[in-house]
Write a structure and sequence with these properties.
By secondary structure, this protein is α+β, with helices and mostly antiparallel strands. Helices cover about 20% and strands about 15% of the residues.
């Protein structure tokens, strides 16, 4: 029987099953499955599956013995074309603020199925009418400047829930019929307001106070990358973004997607190379200037010379040309958090299929276990840190004025054209 005839038979069987509510003795699979169409989330680009050689693409004597090149394979994914901007992160901050405010004034309801108390986003919130009830959100009077009533960022806490699947996959858990999965469900309360004081804290004998006062709030910096966000805050943002997106999809009868998350170190490097395997920079290389002498990223071109590349501090998140995957500022501007734990010898023992090292560091752990990989270099770094193969780290509970992030989402399929 030819393929067209087989297809016609399948259509007839499906029609019969749909009309009669029976399968007619045929193995047709469940018939009420929702339709799935792969769509690229807004602001993201598609990074196809592929292979690359992770590791240094230029001479690096110090790291040559512990970061040997290694061939790996990466599953396709979506990635933000730019670093998360101040204005995008502010949407998260304001959502948390409004959520807390609605709870304070009683704009909540009880879910009929779970019994959980949920925020009622359809009800109107009047900030003036509920001034007294909302007072806990503001600085107390003795801490106000010139009597100005301002939101206290210490109150902006987001309850973030995530599941430790690696722990759940251990034999003693997955093969245990009495396993209680609450042991792998983690709920954390994360203060999500950026550390605006990092602009002053990170530099001694340097005047950066205007950036503390303005960088996160002033509209002049809306499209600049958010900074002063530690690893836990970036992870909480990704969790909220997943919730925000999927709640909308479910409300409109659409199938939820996989989670937004920080990229693994190997995903980040694969994306940064833009298909140019072994190239030292996202545009290829081997220099930070093109053949016309134009600088190609926001970094520190010379000693004491920050503005020669066109940016004094950070620049807009879509400044400079994107790489061949359509990603902006994968070198320079701000370094970027990854989800991976940092280990000097990682390349020697991690898998060659979607390699990654995860470690859920506790507050009581030694400081070396709190290291998370950052990549890409920043506006204050020399060219070496902007190379696609250069590894670096920061501690998960620290925030810096030169570290930001962007999200990825695993693509559920073999190809975007499937």
């Amino acid at each position: 029987m030819t393929k067209p005839h087989l297809l016609l038979l399948a259509v007839i069987l499906l029609a019969l099953a749909g009309c009669t509510g029976a399968y007619n003795g045929q193995l047709l699979g469940e018939l009420d499955r929702p339709e799935w169409n792969a769509t690229i989330p807004y602001g993201m680009v598609y990074i196809p599956s592929g292979t690359l050689h992770i590791g240094q693409s230029d001479e690096d004597i110090n790291n040559a013995l512990v970061q040997k090149n290694k061939s790996i394979s990466i599953q396709g994914f979506f990635m933000d074309e730019t670093e998360i901007t101040n204005n995008e992160y502010r949407q998260f901050v304001n959502w948390v603020r409004d959520s807390i405010a609605r709870k304070l004034v009683g704009l909540v309801y009880t879910d009929d199925i779970t019994g959980a108390e949920l925020v009622d986003w359809n009800a109107r919130l009047d900030w003036d009418e509920n001034r007294d009830a909302l007072e806990p959100l503001y600085y107390p009077e003795n801490q106000r400047i010139l009597g100005k009533r301002e939101i206290d960022p210490r109150q902006l806490n987001y309850v973030w829930t995530w599941v430790d699947l690696k722990e759940a996959a251990r034999d003693e858990n997955r093969l245990n019929p009495n396993f209680d999965r609450t042991s792998v469900i983690h709920t954390e309360v994360v203060n999500i307001f950026p550390d605006t004081l990092c602009w002053v804290h990170d530099y001694t004998y340097s005047y950066n106070e205007p950036f503390t006062r303005n960088y996160f709030w002033h509209p002049a910096f809306d499209n600049y990358p958010v900074v002063g966000v530690n690893w836990k805050q970036a992870s909480a943002f990704s969790g909220w973004r997943t919730r925000f997106f999927n709640e909308w999809k479910e409300a409109h009868g659409e199938v939820p997607t996989d989670e937004f998350r920080l990229p693994t170190e190997s995903e980040w490097e694969y994306a940064a190379r833009g298909g140019r395997d072994l190239a030292p920079y996202p545009w290829g290389g081997p220099y930070m200037r093109n053949n016309k002498g134009c600088i190609l990223a926001n970094f520190k071109p010379g000693r004491g010379d920050y503005p020669d590349d066109g940016g004094f501090y950070t620049v807009k998140a879509d400044a400079y040309f994107p790489n061949d995957f359509g990603l902006y500022c994968m070198a320079g501007n701000v370094s970027e958090w990854t989800s991976s734990a940092y280990d000097e010898d990682a390349y020697h023992f991690e898998h060659d299929l979607n390699p990654d090292i995860k470690y859920n560091a506790q507050d009581s752990d030694p400081i070396t276990l709190k290291r998370k990989v950052i990549r890409g270099g920043s506006w204050k770094d020399i060219a070496y840190f902007c190379q696609t193969g250069t590894r670096n780290y920061e501690y998960q509970d620290t925030s810096k004025c030169y570290v930001g992030f962007r999200d990825v989402m695993t693509f559920l399929g073999r190809s975007i054209n499937d």
